[in-house]
Design a protein that fits this description.
It is built from one helix and nine strands. Strands 1-4-5-6 form a four-stranded antiparallel sheet, with helices on one face. It has a three-stranded antiparallel sheet with strand order 7-8-9, with helices on one face. It starts with 12 loop residues before the first helix and ends with a strand.
């Protein structure tokens, strides 16, 4: 008679191997799902941070220029040429005798060369003894998103040719208030080492 296999005889080598393969596949899937979830969280956090950088920089520029006097604007071009800087004074109101009083001169500019390249800098009293500056962004690239460098074309269909990552344009209309268009690109490196740009265009109306 053949011996009857006892239920307590344990697993065969084949059964153990099969079990190990199944456990390995499960472990690999768990790791992949976990990694995918972590990557998604990092990507979402990066996108939100990029958006915050863009909004914060634009808000600072908008608030400064919305209070500026249209007659004080300097250094800004008319489309299709963009300027990477703008000088202005803030209209403080009427002084004695009804004379309009402006603030100290201010300037917003993008720095394209040297160790400070990529910065957007606000300066009060530029080139004077009491000059003071504040950096508003460190992430502005040399060329605006969608633009191809130095081909004298409007590659991204925004009305400007070869504009920098920060570009100002002036719109003057005798029947309307003076408007300044602001074109801004923020570009940073994502967790995977890829350069990711985000851009926006806004326009503000200056006080005449």
């Amino acid at each position: 008679m053949k011996p009857i296999r006892s239920s307590s005889a344990g697993f065969t080598v084949i059964e153990i191997c099969i079990a190990l393969v199944i456990m390995s596949l499960i472990s690999v899937n768990v790791v992949m799902v976990t990694r995918t979830g972590a990557n998604a969280v990092r990507a979402e956090a990066f996108a939100e941070s990029l958006e915050d950088d863009l909004n914060l920089t634009l808000d600072r520029i908008k608030l400064a220029l919305m209070a500026s006097s249209a007659t004080s604007l300097e250094g800004v071009n008319i489309a299709p040429l963009g300027s990477n800087e703008i000088s202005y004074s803030i209209s403080l109101g009427l002084g004695a005798g009804g004379v309009l009083v402006d603030s100290d001169p201010e300037k917003i500019e993008w720095t394209g060369v040297g160790p400070e390249a990529g910065r957007v800098v606000w300066t009060q009293n530029p080139e004077l003894a009491d000059e003071r500056s504040v950096v508003w962004s460190n992430w502005v690239p040399r060329i605006h998103d969608g633009e191809i460098d130095a081909n004298v074309n409007d590659d991204n269909d925004n009305g400007l040719n070869d504009e920098n990552g920060l570009a100002f344009t002036l719109v003057e209309d005798e029947e309307k208030d003076t408007e300044v268009y602001i074109h801004l690109t923020i570009e940073r490196t994502d967790p995977n080492g890829k350069q990711v740009p985000i851009h926006r265009q806004v326009n503000i109306t200056c006080r005449n």
